[in-house]
């Protein structure tokens, strides 16, 4: 019988309705607070620019539009990189004009090359770092293009004026976003850290309670990749907003690297046990399940119930007891191959428990009021970039600029500089968009609407007003439409185009001038410039999201095994983990979830992580205690064969790697010069080979079937 009275149902429905209504109101409140901050930034900047008698107050006001964001940390980060880009662009403009003061054709050629190089640089960086490259090209254009055909000698004055105007817009935007009901990005960072920690420990607890299917593990790997990249993206932005986050930046990096290391080791351990469980007599697998059961018991308390230091102490105690418990379980295994498999798993469990302890302690340090500075390893998150995509952006942008420059030179159109300027802005701004032509078209529609609103505002309203207060009152109803639309996901691009067009076409100065002929010339040039950028994207689309780039990124992911095999050891583990996560994240972002491409990516990512980490640990062990010359040669051959297979997968390459692994394993078993280190090497090699002969993994397509009856595929030696 139900314990809920009949009258409770309507009340419950009303409560749900009220809760949903409150959520809508909260979202609307956030949107209008953003509109308020954007409006204050725009008009305070304009007022100050006029009081300071800057030549183009509109440039300063447009700057506030370009850097506007709902969260203060993003505005500060955007402003910081805009400052860098502005200064670099100003220096470039001075250099180009000084080199070709009265030679328009060479000037246009070099300027096109510079803008193309900036667009290429934007594709090689994430977040607002790419924005610095966009601004370096845009600033050079806005300084140099207007003076090259009139008074080249005024380029320095132009540079000083543009820098001053841009800096004013940046300072006002930063102050307003940080003081007027700010939305702190640091809260998102703290939630990301808390959720990453809780979700990972919950996943480990769940996995230790029973066997997870491979599909679930692959999906969890994808989630962990997203968590790692998202945390790094947040950290790189919050350091501009929050002094505490800036002071703990290294701790956050160490925490994130610890997460990636522990998750990779746990996946390797889980896959090893699954492979061993598929044997006819899974003695080693059953022994490993018994061995890591105390670890599951230690993790039964949730992160909210047990402090990080206490939980880390539990993990440490389990880790210290592993050798004795492992020795007892090993003695019960009679089969030599099964005993080797158990030793491989024991080593993985020891590594995972150590990394898990370090990860939990890193979480504890983040919770301390004063985080310790000693013992914090300097690490960095390395991105996986594709230079071919950057070269494509360079060719497209440079070609677009050259064609527009040639058109300007041939026609002598007074607004030719404006055409190039708008094309410069949007060619760089959308160089990393997966469907840049479509994005540009959406912005173009908004831009046209903004130009129309600008005409009504300028010639029907502002011509009847006098004074800055009335100017604000006149522009305000037209302006607030744009920032509000940017808060709606489906209309954000339209709103961006509308806002930029409105502020750009009004060209607010002191005193204001109203010239309809110039308005239509200016509007036409801006539409042509934006349209030219869109045509460039349509004829030569960005590589982002394309199958061609996805295949290159997959090749780069597999090539990480070669990196693990051959790169210098200092910092290699962190380099490998972060680059792997970034590459997987890039491919997944443009892959349909659940598709064949997505499943193939996740399968390869797991194989690369498992093999790469094993090779890195193998190389570390060999570096600490040298091998005999003969064994060292066989191990090198096996490592190189693995790198060759992952670089260019094929059945022949798989067979070559398999033969090399077996030869090196036999040599390690027979080695008598340094049996202890040879045994460690054997465990690394066996772990890799068990992964290579796993016919439930991505290797199934490459395993040579003739070897299967002799090797048994799983647990073969």
Key descriptive features of the protein:
disordered N terminus; 0% strand; disordered C terminus; 717 residues; 77% helix; mainly alpha
What is this structure's SSE topology?
Blueprint: H1 8-51, H2 57-67, H3 72-99, H4 104-123, H5 129-148, H6 155-179, H7 185-209, H8 214-238, H9 243-247, H10 249-277, H11 283-298, H12 308-331, H13 336-367, H14 387-411, H15 416-429, H16 436-461, H17 468-479, H18 481-486, H19 492-506, H20 516-539, H21 547-558, H22 560-566, H23 572-589, H24 596-624, H25 629-647, H26 651-670, H27 675-692, H28 708-711
Q: What portion of residues is helical? A: over 70%
Q: In terms of quaternary structure, what is this?
A: single chain
Nearest-angstrom radius of gyration?
A: 31 Å
Structural class: mainly alpha
The tally of beta strands, per DSSP, is 0
Number of contiguous helices: 28
Low-confidence blocks of residues: 1-10, 706-717
In angstroms, what separates the terminal alpha carbons? 62 Å
Topology pattern, helix = H, strand = E: HHHHHHHHHHHHHHHHHHHHHHHHHHHH
Sheet having the most strands: none
Strand content: under 5%
């Amino acid at each position: 019988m139900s314990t809920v009275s009949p009258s409770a149902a309507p009340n419950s429905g009303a409560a749900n309705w009220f809760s949903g209504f409150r959520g809508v109101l909260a979202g609307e409140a956030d949107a209008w607070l953003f509109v308020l901050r954007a409006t204050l930034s725009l008009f305070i900047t304009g007022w100050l620019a006029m009081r300071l008698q800057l030549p183009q107050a509109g440039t300063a006001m447009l700057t506030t539009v370009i850097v506007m964001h709902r969260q203060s940390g993003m505005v500060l980060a955007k402003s910081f990189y805009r400052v860098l880009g502005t200064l670099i662009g100003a220096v470039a403009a001075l250099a180009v004009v000084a080199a070709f003061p009265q030679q328009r054709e060479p000037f246009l050629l070099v300027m096109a090359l510079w803008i193309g190089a900036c667009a290429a640089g934007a594709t090689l960086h994430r977040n607002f770092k790419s924005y610095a490259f966009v601004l370096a090209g845009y600033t050079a254009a806005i300084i140099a293009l207007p003076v090259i055909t009139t008074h080249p000698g005024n380029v320095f004055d132009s540079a000083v004026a543009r820098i001053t105007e841009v800096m004013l817009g940046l300072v006002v935007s930063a102050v307003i976003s940080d003081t007027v009901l700010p939305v702190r990005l640091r809260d998102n960072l703290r939630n990301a850290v808390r959720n990453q920690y809780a979700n990972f420990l919950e996943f480990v607890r769940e996995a230790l309670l029973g066997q997870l299917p491979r599909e679930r593990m692959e999906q969890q790997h994808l989630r962990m990749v997203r968590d790692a990249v998202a945390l790094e993206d947040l950290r790189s932005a919050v350091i501009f907003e929050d002094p505490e986050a800036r002071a703990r930046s290294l701790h956050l990096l160490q925490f994130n690297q610890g997460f990636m290391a522990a998750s990779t080791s746990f996946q390797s351990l889980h896959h090893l046990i699954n492979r061993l469980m598929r044997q006819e007599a899974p003695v080693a697998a059953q022994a490993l399940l018994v061995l890591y059961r105390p670890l599951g018991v230690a993790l039964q308390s949730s992160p909210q119930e047990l402090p990080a230091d206490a939980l880390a102490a539990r993990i440490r105690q389990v880790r210290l007891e592993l050798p004795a418990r492992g020795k007892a379980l090993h003695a019960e295994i009679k089969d030599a191959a099964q005993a080797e498999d158990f030793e491989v798993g024991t080593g993985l469990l020891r590594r995972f428990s150590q990394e898990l302890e370090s990860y939990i302690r890193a979480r504890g340090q983040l919770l301390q009021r004063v985080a310790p500075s000693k013992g914090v390893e300097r690490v960095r998150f390395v991105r996986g970039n594709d230079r071919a995509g950057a070269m494509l952006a360079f060719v497209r942008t440079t070609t677009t600029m050259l064609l527009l420059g040639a058109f300007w030179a041939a026609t002598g159109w007074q607004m030719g500089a404006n055409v190039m300027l708008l094309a410069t802005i949007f060619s760089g701004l959308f160089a990393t968009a997966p469907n840049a032509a479509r994005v540009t078209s959406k912005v173009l529609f908004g831009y046209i609407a903004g130009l129309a609103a600008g005409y009504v505002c300028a010639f029907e309203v502002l011509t009847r007003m006098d004074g800055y207060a009335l100017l604000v009152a006149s522009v305000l109803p037209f302006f607030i439409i744009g920032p509000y639309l940017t808060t709606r996901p489906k209309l954000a691009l339209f709103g961006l185009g509308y806002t930029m067009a409105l502020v750009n076409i009004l060209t607010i100065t002191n005193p204001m001038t109203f010239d309809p002929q110039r308005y239509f010339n200016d509007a036409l040039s801006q539409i042509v410039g934006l349209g030219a950028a869109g045509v460039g994207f349509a004829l030569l689309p960005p590589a982002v999201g394309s199958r061609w780039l996805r295949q290159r990124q997959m090749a780069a992911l597999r090539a990480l095994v070669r990196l693990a095999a051959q790169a210098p050891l200092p910092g290699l583990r962190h380099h490998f983990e972060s680059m792997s996560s970034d590459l997987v994240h890039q491919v997944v972002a443009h892959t349909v979830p659940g598709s064949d491409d997505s499943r193939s990516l996740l399968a390869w990512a797991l194989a690369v992580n498992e093999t790469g980490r094993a090779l890195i640990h193998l190389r570390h062990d060999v570096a600490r205690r040298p091998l005999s010359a003969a064994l060292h040669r066989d191990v090198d051959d096996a490592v190189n064969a693995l790198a060759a297979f992952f670089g260019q997968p094929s059945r022949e390459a798989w067979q070559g790697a398999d033969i090399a692994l077996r030869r090196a394993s036999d040599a390690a078993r027979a080695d008598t010069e340094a049996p202890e280190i040879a045994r460690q090497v054997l465990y690394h090699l066996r772990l890799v080979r068990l992964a290579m002969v796993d016919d439930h993994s991505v290797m199934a397509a490459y395993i040579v079937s003739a070897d299967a009856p002799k090797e048994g595929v799983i647990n073969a030696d």
